[in-house]
Specification:
Blueprint: H1 7-52
Length: about 60
């Protein structure tokens, strides 16, 4: 704690820091989920393009 800082202010700053750390972790989780969804969409697009290709009649 900074010398002379109000303990309530220090507690509020600590709580805010913890909230920000939690928010950052949530953002990282969402980013990972979005990357997996994007990879799935790319695979689906590639599968659809391959299925529509005249070189691969079904």
């Amino acid at each position: 704690m900074i010398q002379g800082q109000d303990p309530r202010s220090a507690a509020a700053i600590t709580a805010m820091s913890l909230d920000l750390a939690e928010l950052l972790a949530t953002i990282e989780q969402v980013r990972g989920q979005l990357q997996r969804v994007q990879a799935g969409l790319i695979c689906a697009q590639l599968d659809a393009a391959e299925a529509a290709s005249p070189a691969n009649p079904q």
